[in-house]
Amino acid sequence: MIYPFGEGRQRWIPYLLVVPGLLLYFMIALGPSLATSLYSFTDASGTPGGEVNWIGLDNYDEFLFAGQAALDNIDALERTIIFSVVVSSMQFGLGLIVAILLTQGLPGTRFFRTLFFMPVILGAVIQGLIWRLFLYPLGGPLSTFLEQFGMYSEFLGGQDAFWWVVVVQIWANMGITMVIFIAGLQTIPEELYEAAQIDGASSLDSFRYITWPMLTPAVNTNLILNIIGSLQAWILFLVLIGYRPGTQVLGYIIYAQGFGATGASNAPLRQGFAAAASIVLFIIVLIVGLTTQYLLRRREERLLG
Amino acid sequence: MNTTSVAQDGMIELDDAKFSKPGWFKISPRVILSYAALLLIAVAYLGPLLMLFNTTFLTNREFNRNATQLPGTLSNEGYEESWDDRLFFASEIPGSISFEAYEAPWAEGDLAKNTRNFFGYIGDLFSNYTTAWEQGDFAQLMLNSVFYAFSATTLYVFTAVFVAFPVARGYIKGGGIVFTLFLIALFLPPALIPQFQLMLGLDLYNTRLGYILLLVVNPVGIIIMVNYLRSLPRELDEAAAMDGCGYVRFMFYIVFPLSRPVIATVVVLHAIGIWNEVILATIYLTDESKQPITRGLLEFQGQYGSAWPVLASAVTLMAIPMIILFLFLQRYIISGLTQGAVKS
Questions:
Q1: What CATH number did the domain enclosing B240 receive?
Q2: Could you give the number of structural domains in chain A?
Q3: Would you say residue B291 has pLDDT above 90?
């Protein structure tokens, strides 16, 4: 594009002004992100001035093959995928249903929308603490409710702690999926539905042949965001249950190993190992993300022509 | 007809009016079912919030005996004992009003005294909040959070517009590559480890400056801005340049004012992100005096983990500013999040 604001020295001004933003991005985000792969081949610790040695694939070897700890890591890997599959599909389904319910012009729509979106802005610490209270096992609301049926659960302290994190994760982020669907539903011309109605189409037909295909951009955005977001999510695990064997996901292992938050006192900061775990997570995100994108694009092409 | 939900200033609006046709409100099975489903989901959303709010008005003893009761109604027992609990609890708080100053508001006696008692009662009702505020040093924490959100967001917005505009216009070579580099951020591995080494190397560990620098990055905001700036008419640039306006002047007098809606959106999203940030604060800010409120709340929970009434009050104190802001700025938040979902 032709630059209208002068030639010569003038031409350099936009370049000059781009520098701070780009530099910060490269220095703080992109650079470190890429350097993670380098650190994954070292025994870097987090101590200032500590020696950093190149140890090749040792970290990966340990992560995947070193006895019981490696089995735990594989478990965590599986757990990460289960978490992602359940969270993203539930969030997608629930978000779609709620969005449809909230675009019928019913009175009170705005109230429900605000309420369902509210957790999104509260952030993980508040979301987590609110649910720790709600799931208080000694006479909290849910515990009292279960008691009516003679049931008892330790909730976050018990066996199903993982599943409660799944619930909270969906609760916390369903609002984003919902508003993206609502925005998508709004772009569908009303005339299509009217024409379909005249032709005698049922509501189900309308959904299948109008809403669903016309919603494709919102569907794609939501799927990609949900899947990648839930693969990388772990902060609610920290707030809700802490680092407990048999519950962690990959993201939490990275943090706990890298910054000594495994719960063991004086746990060493194993940043090289954490970097290797980051790369494992990255590879999963990459494979799943690209596959999803490929499938979605193929579907879009099929729909369009 | 093109039914678009993009408002005049380019904001994406969730337009309720579009869906209200004349004669929509007939009580049909469909309407009833819709409300039933919505109410069911609403319980899951309101329940935890109401529980939180109710807990802030309970005493510890009330909570331990029956966590779901309303304040002042000890289950199976009279109000009086619950009242004593409040007095007992109040007396535990350092610096609280003295024990004898209280009488139940309905106690016999003259009106003035009872009124005074009534306000004493109100004060007691909120005593968990004052305890949390003082014990958690929340004034300092909130000040820190506001400072981080304000400084990092300001810094971010200026640097971001200066990147987004020439990229949107194609005024710099390699603009397309730059845009892609921001787009792929979603997929990249976590940067935590090298970031930490970098901060150690720069001697920015446990410094406010270091923490702010970490918060001046947000690829999503840049993408939102580029998408918006592409829609500004190019003739503006040419006309301004013909009149002898330079690039910097053009940025400040034309681009910034014209992108107010998108700047508002990005500012709100970014500031919320900072307000809720906890991991970097946990890693980098070991000095209590530098910590933001999220970190403070986690520490507070470590100390008061079992004293839910005070902890719940602390959580509420942190949530309320966000909820109020959200009610006012909902439009900007939602517009930012739904960008790109409507286009393809």
A1: 1.10.3720.10
A2: 1
A3: yes
Is the same domain home to B162 and B286? yes
Q: What does B275-328 look like in DSSP terms, one character per residue? A: HH--HHHHHH--SGGG--HHHHHHHHHHHHTT-HHHHHHHHHHHHHHHHHHHHH
B42 falls within a domain: no
Distance from CA of A68 to the nearest CA of B (A): 25
The residue segments making up the domain with residue B80 are 60-125
Q: What's residue B75's pLDDT?
A: 45
Chosen for mutation from B193, B215, B285 (greatest number of chain A CBs closer than 10 Å) is B193
Please report the pLDDT score of residue B71 as a whole number: 76
Q: Give me the pLDDT at residue B136, please.
A: 83
Cβ atoms of residues A39 and A271 within 8 Å: yes
pLDDT at B96 over 80: no
- How buried is residue A298: exposed, middle or buried, by Cβ count under 10 Å (0-12/13-18/19+)? exposed
- DSSP letter at B98 equals P
Number of structural domains found in chain B = 2
Q: What is the largest CA-CA distance in chain A?
A: 81
Whether residue A231 is predicted with pLDDT greater than 80 in this model: the reply is yes
Lowest mean pLDDT among B272-281, B284-293, B299-308: B299-308
B266: which 2 tokens? 């990005």
Q: B69: which 2 tokens?
A: 């009761």
Q: In CATH, what number is assigned to the domain containing residue A183?
A: 1.10.3720.10
Asked whether residue B53 carries a pLDDT value surpassing 70, the answer given is yes
One domain for residues B102 and B161: no
Residue indicated by tokens 């560990």: B205
**Which residue segment(s) compose the domain that A178 sits in?**
58-304
Measure CB to CB from residue A186 to each of B5, B219, B315 and give the nearest one: B5
Tell me what the mean pLDDT of segment A77-100 comes to: 97
CA distance A228 to A284: 10
8 Å CB contact of B315 and A129: yes
Residues B141-146: contacts with CB under 8 Å, at least 24 apart: B141/B291, B141/B292, B141/B293, B141/B295, B141/B296, B141/B297, B142/B293, B142/B318, B142/B321, B144/B289, B144/B290, B144/B291, B144/B292, B144/B293, B145/B274, B145/B275, B145/B292, B145/B293, B145/B294
Whole-complex ipTM: 0.91
This prediction has a pTM of 0.88
Q: Please tell me which of the candidates A140, A190, A254 has its beta carbon nearest to residue B192.
A: A254
Q: Are residues B210 and B94 in the same domain?
A: no
B115 & B183 share domain? no
In terms of domains, do B271 and B149 share one?
yes
Residues B299 and B161 grouped into a single domain: yes
Under a CB-based contact definition with an 8 Å cutoff, are residues B291 and B141 in contact? yes
Closest CB to B68: pick one of A4, A107, A139. A139
State the Cα–Cα distance between residues B329 and B217, nearest whole angstrom: 22
Same domain for B158 and B116: no
Q: What is the mean pLDDT of residues B326-340?
A: 82
**Contact (CB, 8 A) for B180 and B301:** no
Contact (CB, 8 A) for B219 and A25? yes
Euclidean distance between CA atoms A168 and A237, whole angstroms: 10
Q: Does residue A186 belong to any structural domain of this protein?
A: yes
